[in-house]
Structure formats: structure tokens, C-alpha cells
Amino acid sequence: MTDTPGIVITGGSGRMGQMLIKTVLASDKCRLVGVVDRAGHDWIGQDIGTAMGGQPIGVTVTDDALEAFAKAQAVIDFTSPAATVGFAELAAQARAVHVIGTTGLTDDDLAAIKAAARHAVVVRAGNMSLGVNLLVKLTQKVAAALDEDFDIEVIEAHHHHKVDAPSGTALMLGEAAAEGRGVNLNDVRDSGRDGITGARKRGDIGFTAIRGGDIVGEHDVMFAAPGERIVLRHLATDRAIFARGALKAALWGQDKGPGEYDMMDVLGL
């Protein structure tokens, strides 16, 4: 068992963190060797099994990421942009695979992650599920096949706790549509409509964000032309799909050279 990769989960007390911990513990292909949470959290110093309401498992929650990462072959990180940038540097020092599911990253954040990827494997994706990544590929192909008579709208819905919009997945889909059309998304992005906005500009890619209840994640890509619409859709009903994808990425990255990868690489798409 000790020759299986050791995994550290960051943000262990969060909804996604707890799902990741359960997924790692249920796998016979890896070991949970650390859980990191923010300084001052009630779980710091507790056994993670006890903190989650179960039996002790011998892994203590810590706020010392450097110490935790030193024991790991992979770090799975669904936290915040500021935390993720710090974790990227530490994971690179430890030469651990850094799987990033954090969204809302700025250009400066991405530059820092790119620098870390010179020394270690970084797998970053706005969404870790197989279905969503297939949707991304389909979106690119449909956008390439249709001209600008078809307006493109990316419509996403998430739970009311989500703090960023559009979602990382929605932006992945928008990037795929833009790539299919051979344009830069920043040049055609249309989001945050409010008030008298004027008519839609031909060729723009629009975004709509819905927040409510406990919606895990829903994404539609609509291609709308006079007289017809094509809608590609993915519905997530259990965030376990993201945890399974993240673990798959952590294991996939074990024999890869330093660099930036995404789920398309992991899934061979």
C-alpha cells in the first residue's frame, strides 16, 4: 500500500474538500497523507476522520501546507485564487503533481501557476468531469461548423454559495466556442447585461449566470439562429464526479514531465 501515491487535500473542511477526502479514502490506488485548511479553523489539529464525524484515520488537519506537501506525490486543490497561487509554489518545491480545480483565477494568478509548472506537473481545469470535457469538445466542433448567423449563449447555473461568475466551466465552453470560430474570447465576450444595452452584436459569445439553492452545476451552450436553435447541455447532480476526475488527474500526472496540462490531456481528448 505504501507504494501508492500520497495525496494531500487542501481546503478539507469545504464541501468539495470533504468529497475529495472521501474519494481518496475509498480508492485503492492512492493514500490520503495530509489535509490542509486555513489557519484558525476549528478542524486544525483534529484527526480528519473525527472532524468529519467518523472514526480517526491517522491524518491530522494542519495549516502548514509546506510540511504536508513534503509527504505528498500529489495535491488536489479546490480553494481560492490567492490560496491556490501559494499552493502552486509549494507543490512545485515538493515536485508534487498539483491538480487545480479553483476558478476565478486572474491573468496574474495564471502567470504564477505557469511559473510553478516549470518545475512540476500542474493539471488545471475549470471542470474535472468527463461529461463536461466532452461538451467542451462538442462546443468547439459545432461552433466551427456554424457561421455567425448563429448567436452563441453559454448559460450556467450553480448553488447560491458560489462566489464567481461566469463559472470556470462556462468560460471553458466560451473559449471552446471562440476557438471553433477562430476568434479571441476577450474580443467577443458579452456578459453582465443590464439595462438598455442595445442590440446584440453579431459574432459575440454571451454568458448568463444563475445562482440558487443547491444546484451542483448545469451548463447549456445555445446556438440560436432565425428559425432554429441547437442546445448542448450537461447537468451535474453529484459533485462526486468532479472529485473522481480530480483524482484521475492526480494519478495520471505521476509519470509526466513538468508542465501545464488540462483534463483534455488526462482524458486523451
How would you summarize this macromolecular structure in one to three sentences?
This protein has helices spanning 15-26, 48-51, 65-69, 81-94, 107-116, 130-145, 168-181, 185-188, 240-252, 263-267; strands at residues 6-10, 31-36, 61-62, 74-77, 97-100, 121-124, 151-158, 189-191, 205-211, 217-225, 228-236, 259-261. The chain is α/β, with parallel strands linked by helices.
Can you give a write-up of this model?
The longest helix has 16 residues, at about 130-145. This protein has 2 domains: about 5-125 and about 240-265, Rossmann fold, CATH 3.40.50.720; about 130-235, 2-Layer Sandwich (Dihydrodipicolinate Reductase, domain 2), CATH 3.30.360. By secondary structure, the protein is of the alpha/beta class. A 7-stranded parallel sheet has the order 3-2-1-4-5-6-12, with helices on both faces. A 5-stranded mixed sheet has the order 8-9-7-10-11. It has 10 helices and 12 strands.
Q: Quick one: CATH superfamily of the largest domain?
A: NAD(P)-binding Rossmann-like Domain
Q: Using the 3D structure, state the CATH architecture of the largest domain.
A: 3-Layer(aba) Sandwich
Q: What is the CA–CA distance across the termini? A: 31 Å
Strand order of the largest sheet: 3-2-1-4-5-6-12
State the order of secondary-structure elements, H for helix, E for strand: EHEHEHEHEHEHEHHEEEEHEH
Into how many domains do the coordinates divide? 2
Radius of gyration: 20 Å
Unreliable stretches (pLDDT < 50, length at least 5) are: none
Largest beta-sheet characterization: 7 strands, parallel
> Portion of residues in helices?
25-40%
Q: Helical segment tally? A: 10
Structural class: alpha/beta
Under the CATH scheme, which class of the largest domain?
Answer: Alpha Beta
| Overall 3D form | elongated
Question: Would you tell me the overall average pLDDT?
Answer: 95
| CATH topology description of the largest domain | Rossmann fold
**DSSP strand (E) fraction?**
15-25%
Total beta strand runs: 12
